[in-house]
């Protein structure tokens, strides 16, 4: 049986822990994941996680597969100009894509349909095919340009999901904050999750 397929694009906004945790949980949920990583995201990974993502897509696939004990070919990292990869065409791309974290640069490129690298093209494909596109943006404060781009994409059916964890679940560790954001993404993707107690099911204070 075909596995659920998701495209996960990782761009150069702060928030590498969100991307890592999301990939980990998608793998545990038995999804096949196409992973697209921008050059700036690699700098952020080195800065925030001390992780050096291998330059070649195959080596990066092997790196993440080993880290998350993925099935063979479950994680496929695609290069930024790998135009023949399935995510580049509406005839083959997964119907769901998350950009996590999403930089304001990529937000802007997606909003204008630039399609200048595989991340932008994959997002453009999702929009034209009326699939599900989730942008986990991270910036503060937001300029009018950012807000206009978010509004434009929201009106096209994309989901703008800023990485802004709540505190009502009494987080004790950074990982609790990360899980808050990842849990909401999984809810939108329709993937069962138990990372976070749901609102209304928590003990009342
Ligand atoms: C450590 C680090 C943190 C950054 N944090 C953010 C951020 O939170 N939001 C953002 O929009 N850009 C951030 N940037 C800037 C982007 O990486 C930069 O604009 C880049 O061109 C985005 O390219 P990309 O969209 O191809 O990843 C950060 C850069 C670095 C090196």
Concise overview:
Helix content is 40%, strand content 15%. With 205 residues, the protein is of the alpha/beta class.
Summarize the structure in words.
The chain is of the alpha/beta class. The protein has a single domain, classed as Rossmann fold, CATH 3.40.50. It contains 7 helices and 6 strands. It has a 6-stranded parallel beta sheet, sandwiched between helices. Strand 5, helix 6 and strand 6 form a beta-alpha-beta unit. It is globular and about 55 Å long. The termini are far apart. The site of flavin mononucleotide has 16 residues, from helix 2 and helix 4.
Describe the SSE topology.
Layout: E1 5-10, H1 16-28, E2 32-37, H2 39-49, H3 57-67, E3 75-78, E4 96-102, H4 104-112, H5 118-128, E5 132-137, H6 144-155, E6 159-160, H7 174-189
Parallel strand pairs: 1-2, 1-4, 2-3, 4-5, 5-6
Helix pairs in contact: 1-7, 4-6
Residues 11-14, 38, 40-41, 43-44, 47, 103-106, 138-139 line the site of flavin mononucleotide.
CATH homologous superfamily title = Flavin prenyltransferase-like
Overall structural class, as computed from helix and strand content, comes to alpha/beta
> How many DSSP E strands?
6
Hetero groups: flavin mononucleotide
Number of individual domains: 1
Q: Could you describe the largest sheet, including whether it forms a barrel?
A: 6 strands, parallel
- Mean pLDDT metric: 96
What is the string of SSEs from the N terminus onward?
Answer: EHEHHEEHHEHEH
Give me the CATH architecture, please: 3-Layer(aba) Sandwich
Strand order across the biggest sheet? 3-2-1-4-5-6
Instruction: Report the total helices.
Output: 7
- Global shape: globular
Distance between the termini: 45 Å
Helix content: 40-55%
CATH class: Alpha Beta
